[in-house]
């Protein structure tokens, strides 16, 4: 195999308000013909910036520094004038982005968007364009391409849009395709299909590909060689077997150790610590833990949730006369039934749109179900429009959004306990500090604002806020989904320890089966608003009963070493 | 789509009913037209006769119903001051205002939007900075003052253009318009310029803000990654994406320009609706005020309605919802 | 005039709740990097100071009829009056020193603009936040009302209200508030509904915190940045509106040396070449409005996260 792309000492710096940011700082690697090259790293490692540097599409304040070299098939790209670069883009190097919902223009038909991409590099008649558009969509396995090319992006699902983006990237059979987290925003079943097809397409067309991802498993599945990036540098590069099988660098080892799928369920993960955290201090809290184990401490009975799009009076009037469309109702949860025992961790698993988050919010009392009841410890969570008591607390997915940016850490944690008499104004400081210590957050920093902390630290604060209400049940809605794998490991560890010490009852909502397997006692699988399967963790993962569960388990990318 | 149109139409009707009540009470509760109509030394008998003649002795709700009833038949009553049917009065003045406003908005769009797109596309270039600074100046300077300056410069100082009036008009469909004659254009030039400067700045800033935002989206980045030339990106992607908010603004601006015209018309002595309403408010000429406000309401409702429809036609996400 | 429409641009922008405390210093550091905006801010501050201390710095008190010399009316700039008075910018038709009148005019403009802006701001923030929080019919009703009102240009509303209420400071402020409050309601509502959807509000509601707490401690503080930007634009708009209304004769009584009134009075002498009576007050007005708008423009750019690098 000969090399197609040779990158030497690539340095990309950004000029910002706070000085120069060295996003990519002297990396070298090469990509061979017909190869898929994986570029792995956590957020801020510079992997995406590397991709954009290669295709010459940096934001205005970013610049590839002199002395860097990018050679495509022997030709130096760095320093080429814009016109030349444009001719290379799309024809020799193409790119696929992360979020398929954003990459296509919502007001242009698919065929028009393909036509523009074709005509960017060659002349073509309308007929020719249509023919090639159909061909391109067929290539990425879109059914009825003749019909689909005349539709608009919003009529496509996320997976289909990503296929269209891939089709556009492959139009001119480029030498190199840069795929920046192309499956991250997709459901795991869709991701599995696209992974398979991409691999086949690369082989079929003989193109090379750089696969940028934070996910070791998908990268290990699709690529032949990989490079691990950290803070703008490549720490290790080699074949998948070399790098992931016998990692030489402690950082790579740390990333691998942080994967829950590689640890025994329930075990603390050895994480590649990138942020320091104090020890978890829990001694005086342990005694408050409830002991009794009740089989159905939390009970969800036949819960239904229908979201109706507001039609208003006029809308109802038009419907009556048959002029309007039938009301647009989304049946998010259908007849959900489940129980959680005290001290149990129940996993709630499903793909996007399965209704798992909605069910979680109903149990937490944020939404009022259309029908059915939720009781915790025998008391209803909701009566009419009012949420009762403080027994159920929630931890949200995005720690950047779940803390009020204008309230200090102390205020955020203290607000609830103060409002509900769990502490007094005088004791609040000590009370809050106790819970911050419980999540290994330094109480000395409690008067700062959330923006001064990292995602992992913020998630600790959010956990402390929930704990401080001394809840009977905590609903965790994808609490580690938006965290880097090493931070994710720390938060998982924290939850495991808290659970042991405080005998917490948790409802753990997640799309990530490996995390659920690691953390939960029992699992409930949801699909299209219905609960399709319920079993103990070991049972579900070893002998799934329902075809949907089987498919889901098969689709999970596994580390291929 | 049909239900969308139906919904908008019924909303428009409700808005009009609410407006008619507001306008009616607003205008009728304040001020006493009897003082305008009758000289202070008129006898009690004449007073009562006049009051009865104009229906001012009826309870307010009765007056309102009469007012709605006669309005729906196109009868807006008689002007207290001009002593002629209000409908006639307004239809006499409307073309003058209409021609002023439409030309002004067209001018504002044709100049403002391209400048704005350029400024949004290259926000850091010198030309863009000048355009943006100019647009801030444009909407900071009060219209009436610009009007005075234009008159002082072109009419007084250089004496090349007339300071007011409509000039010579020519008939189109039996309606007199100034833009059909050279002399008319001479008279139009200053008022149009005066009226459009502010709008031009607005359009320019909107187009710039829209373009700047669109340029940062992934859709544009993806198009660039496919090697699509910048000119095509601007023409196909950007223009199409920002045309949606721009159409909205165009419609609304047309409406507000009609209303804005009252300042320009006063300064340039332009015999349009704006001058009429100012005069009628000064003289508490209720039927004219009510009719004008109702007409403006209808106008705005119609404009909003067509903006909504245009919006739906431009945005496939809205258009295809019903399928 | 209806610069009010400018808030359309602003409302379409999405505001991120900028973090407080240390962000404050950063904000000004970035702000001062823009020289034009810095100068504009300086101009605004100078005008505010001049307006506050007007009685101590003006050569003449335009309210004091005894100090006016009718013989000195309509004198050109630089004229030295019979009583030894030096009229730097000339005199108006009543023999008032134009410089003094302009300074007092700026004082009135600022007073009207700021009071009207503050009242409209308060109404808008309260109504908008509550509507966004309450949702349902209350929200639909309020927002529909606001939409209808916003479809009418501010100048028309202000003109009609001012005409109906008659001349006077109170009446004028009322007319300005009526013409502008809807912009604040819409902005506050837009920002507040965005905040309402965010996880931290959901988190507070799930604790549960009371609705009052959520509105006053979470939603309102986080909705302030876009409101502040709209406020700068609207104060400038109010000042422009005030001048226009006074020019049209429905604003302040002729005894108040408002800038609009000065320009209006000078209008009739414009054609005879006595340009200064209209031009100088106009220039003062434009400098004030433009400076406020330049400051607002920079603040908006800085608060828009999508343009921030």
TrEMBL record, chain A:
<comment type="similarity">
    <text>Belongs to the ABC transporter superfamily.</text>
</comment>
<keyword id="KW-0813">Transport</keyword>
<dbReference type="InterPro" id="IPR003439">
    <property type="entry name" value="ABC_transporter-like_ATP-bd"/>
</dbReference>
<dbReference type="Pfam" id="PF08352">
    <property type="entry name" value="oligo_HPY"/>
</dbReference>
<dbReference type="GO" id="GO:0005524">
    <property type="term" value="F:ATP binding"/>
</dbReference>
<dbReference type="InterPro" id="IPR050319">
    <property type="entry name" value="ABC_transp_ATP-bind"/>
</dbReference>
<feature type="domain" description="ABC transporter">
    <location>
        <begin position="298"/>
        <end position="553"/>
    </location>
</feature>
<dbReference type="InterPro" id="IPR013563">
    <property type="entry name" value="Oligopep_ABC_C"/>
</dbReference>
<dbReference type="Pfam" id="PF00005">
    <property type="entry name" value="ABC_tran"/>
</dbReference>
<protein>
    <submittedName>
        <fullName>ABC transporter ATP-binding protein</fullName>
    </submittedName>
</protein>
<feature type="domain" description="ABC transporter">
    <location>
        <begin position="5"/>
        <end position="256"/>
    </location>
</feature>
<dbReference type="InterPro" id="IPR027417">
    <property type="entry name" value="P-loop_NTPase"/>
</dbReference>
<keyword id="KW-0547">Nucleotide-binding</keyword>
<keyword id="KW-0067">ATP-binding</keyword>
<dbReference type="InterPro" id="IPR003593">
    <property type="entry name" value="AAA+_ATPase"/>
</dbReference>
<dbReference type="InterPro" id="IPR017871">
    <property type="entry name" value="ABC_transporter-like_CS"/>
</dbReference>
Automatic annotation (TrEMBL), chain B:
<feature type="transmembrane region" description="Helical">
    <location>
        <begin position="133"/>
        <end position="160"/>
    </location>
</feature>
<dbReference type="InterPro" id="IPR045621">
    <property type="entry name" value="BPD_transp_1_N"/>
</dbReference>
<feature type="transmembrane region" description="Helical">
    <location>
        <begin position="172"/>
        <end position="193"/>
    </location>
</feature>
<feature type="transmembrane region" description="Helical">
    <location>
        <begin position="12"/>
        <end position="31"/>
    </location>
</feature>
<keyword id="KW-0472">Membrane</keyword>
<feature type="transmembrane region" description="Helical">
    <location>
        <begin position="100"/>
        <end position="121"/>
    </location>
</feature>
<keyword id="KW-1133">Transmembrane helix</keyword>
<feature type="transmembrane region" description="Helical">
    <location>
        <begin position="289"/>
        <end position="314"/>
    </location>
</feature>
<comment type="similarity">
    <text>Belongs to the binding-protein-dependent transport system permease family.</text>
</comment>
<dbReference type="InterPro" id="IPR035906">
    <property type="entry name" value="MetI-like_sf"/>
</dbReference>
<feature type="transmembrane region" description="Helical">
    <location>
        <begin position="241"/>
        <end position="263"/>
    </location>
</feature>
<keyword id="KW-1003">Cell membrane</keyword>
<dbReference type="Pfam" id="PF00528">
    <property type="entry name" value="BPD_transp_1"/>
</dbReference>
<protein>
    <submittedName>
        <fullName>ABC transporter permease</fullName>
    </submittedName>
</protein>
<dbReference type="Pfam" id="PF19300">
    <property type="entry name" value="BPD_transp_1_N"/>
</dbReference>
<keyword id="KW-0812">Transmembrane</keyword>
<keyword id="KW-0813">Transport</keyword>
<dbReference type="InterPro" id="IPR000515">
    <property type="entry name" value="MetI-like"/>
</dbReference>
<feature type="domain" description="ABC transmembrane type-1">
    <location>
        <begin position="94"/>
        <end position="311"/>
    </location>
</feature>
